[in-house]
Amino acid sequence: MLSGRVAFITGASRGIGRAIARTLSKAGTDIAGIDLNLDELKSAMKMIEDDTGRKAIAVQADVADPASVAKGVEEAIKVLGRIDILVNNAGITRDNILLRMKDEEWDRVIKINLTGTFNCTKAVIKGMVKNRSGRIISIASVVGAMGNVGQANYAASKAGIIGFTKSIAREYANRGITANAIAPGFIETHMTKALSEEVRDVLIKHIPMGRLGMPEDVAHVVEFLASDEAVYITGQVIHVNGGMYM
Ligand SMILES: NC(=O)c1ccc[n+]([C@@H]2O[C@H](COP(=O)([O-])OP(=O)(O)OC[C@H]3O[C@@H](n4cnc5c(N)ncnc54)[C@H](O)[C@@H]3O)[C@@H](O)[C@H]2O)c1
């Protein structure tokens, strides 16, 4: 379905990012996986290459650092020729109630989640405009729509991604570029492993489907948004949450 395309995926060494890389690779895409953690990233990309036979390169970069992102984009284009699909997936949490939230906890989350999305999108958009085609898919969160106790920084960063996505969608709609966000609910990854059994049980009570989502549940939506079939969808937020927010 996506044969011959190239995807630049941030936070690709594990969790949702790795599932997106594998799913797009299975659909025929060559992958530039981006992460801070080079060892884990290399082994994830190697497994994907072995599995699908498509190219999957590991590029170490920090999405919070524009110079590092520019270098990563340059390397990806040098090896894979172009970037058709950008997936802004790298993200972190630093939870705390507002009364106790440290400036560094606020700054770090905004810098990686929101500014990282800006840095990567800015770095690839010129090539997409030149090609008159492109797909920008950013991973927001249900928390960006609902808010969450202890996550003012994270919720603000994810709501920011949604506003950013809608603006980019408007700016580049007439250049063949779409920009959409996906807002996952709670997904089984390293990020949610940190939750206690107690918090997990309460969470599940609020999910009509009665379980957390799997990384692949998000990856399949990325695959669709990256496809030709999704050409008329832009500026949207697709919720993938088992019904916890409607
Ligand atoms: N897991 C969930 O329940 C959930 C729910 C909603 C949204 N999300 C979002 O999905 C995305 C992926 O989450 P996940 O659960 O797979 O998390 P994860 O912690 O398992 O993976 C995140 C990846 O991003 C990488 N990363 C972190 N900072 C980076 C930086 N500065 N530069 C490059 N890479 C960096 C990490 O090394 C890691 O490999 C995040 O944006 C997260 O906010 C997750």
Distance between the termini: 30 Å
Largest sheet: spatial strand order: 3-2-1-4-5-6-7
Overall CATH class: Alpha Beta
Helix-residue proportion: 40-55%
Radius of gyration: 17 Å
Helix-strand string: EHEHEHEHEHHEHHHE
The computed structural class is alpha/beta
CATH superfamily: NAD(P)-binding Rossmann-like Domain
Strand content: 15-25%
Can you summarize the main beta sheet? 7 strands, parallel
Low-confidence stretches: none
What is the typical, i.e. mean, pLDDT? Answer: 97
CATH architecture: 3-Layer(aba) Sandwich
Count of helical regions: 9
- List each distinct ligand once: nicotinamide-adenine-dinucleotide
Q: How many distinct beta strands?
A: 7
CATH topological fold name: Rossmann fold
Provide key terms for this protein.
single chain, 246 residues, alpha/beta, Rossmann fold, seven-stranded parallel β-sheet, 9 helices, 50% helix, globular, binds nicotinamide-adenine-dinucleotide
Descriptive account of the structure:
- The chain is built from nine helices and seven strands.
- It is of the alpha/beta class and 246 residues long.
- The protein has a single domain (6-240), classed as NAD(P)-binding Rossmann-like Domain (Rossmann fold).
- Helix 3 runs parallel beside helix 4.
- The radius of gyration is 17 Å and the shape is globular.
- Nicotinamide-adenine-dinucleotide (NAD) binds at residues 10-11, 13-17, 34-37, 62-64, 89-92, 112, 116, 139, 141, 184, 186-187, 189-192.
Task: Briefly summarize what is shown.
With 246 residues, the chain is an alpha/beta fold. The protein has nine helices and seven strands.
